[in-house]
Amino acid sequence: MIALEHVSKVFASRGRTVRAVDDVSLEVGGGELCVFIGPSGSGKTTIMRMINRLEVPTSGRILVDKRDVSTVDPVRLRRTIGYVIQQVGLFAHFTVAGNVAIVPRLLGRSVDARRRKVEELLRLVGLPPEEFAHRYPRELSGGQQQRVGVARALAADPPIVLMDEPFGAVDPITRKQLQRELRRIQAEVRKTIVFITHDVSEAFLLADRIVLLSDGHVVQSGTPADLLRRPAGAFVTDFIGNDRALLTLQHTRLAELAKPAGGDGPPAHELPLPGTLSVLEALRHIAARRPGGEGVWVGEGSRPDRYLTYADLVTALGQAVAANAPHARDA
């Protein structure tokens, strides 16, 4: 859905040039939630601004749905891309409904069509329209304002949504709630989302794929599991930092560890678990249910066909902790 081909961006600053983005090539697949993460000044926001032509590449090209964005009218392009920012940017003199309906109104949608879309989207983001549609932004909490921002970004049913640190200005409890809501919404609408964050835990919680940037370069691009198990270098492991052990347990699935099992299936005293569970989730199930036997059966439906011993789970736990220990890379 989005492709960058050898894209660079150079800014002139106080008589010198700054290469904010340096020969970046990457692709974001349709329906994928791709998180850009990296230190300040790594090029995350510059790349996002080039996707919707708020910045123009110095070299290279950007394709959206196989069209070079430099050949598309920027206003028309932006009306097909949802945009959510940290400061929300709601219009204070518009109601919630008026804010959400802005782009459909610009696109010439009828009053009835706009009303139906507003009601649908407010329900989607957890704001009942009968309670919130006629409020003004000043009457909302920060988390509620961000939900309205997400609804507005989805109002024209764009295939792509860009989110630039959308939850960075809210308190930690509200941020967790918004993260869970975004996962739920994405499961329903399956948009192509590019999401910028500085928060490592947020990146691993939300992403189908993570792009880690530094000094305008892509250091590593891959699934969360790729970055945890096959880091491209010391920068990757150092950037993930102290959360690495917990994240490894969250992103290792039982299906990846279980081995083919013989027999007729699990006896009554051994626990069957779906292969999609993470090691961390499995450990919680085991602690809560205290099954007998030597391990757990893994698979879907009533006939799980793979087996994972408790020793295997302990080994996975130990490897995750060891990988997070000081100097474990050099041991």
What does the radius of gyration come to? Answer: 23 Å
Top CATH class of the largest domain: Alpha Beta
Major sheet characteristics: 6 strands, mixed
Q: Please identify, by name, the CATH architecture of the largest domain.
A: 3-Layer(aba) Sandwich
Task: Tell me the distance between the termini.
Answer: 42 Å
The CATH superfamily label of the largest domain reads P-loop containing nucleotide triphosphate hydrolases
Q: How many domain units?
A: 2
Briefly note the structural class of the backbone: alpha/beta
What are the low-pLDDT stretches, counting only 5+ consecutive residues below 50? 327-331
Strand order of the largest sheet: 6-7-8-3-9-10
Order of helices and strands: EEEHEEHEHHHHHEHEHEEHHHHEEHEEH
The name of the CATH topology of the largest domain is Rossmann fold
| Number of β-strand runs | 14
Which range does the strand content fall in? 15-25%
Relative helix content: 25-40%
* Average residue pLDDT: 88
Q: Number of DSSP helices?
A: 15
Q: What is the overall shape?
A: globular
Report on this model:
This protein has 331 residues and is α/β, with parallel strands linked by helices. Helix content is 39%, strand content 24%. The protein contains 15 helices and 14 strands. The protein has a 6-stranded mixed β-sheet with strand order 6-7-8-3-9-10, with helices on both faces. The longest helix is centred in the middle third of the chain and has 18 residues, at 172-189. The two termini are 42 Å apart. Mean pLDDT is 88; it is low at 327-331.
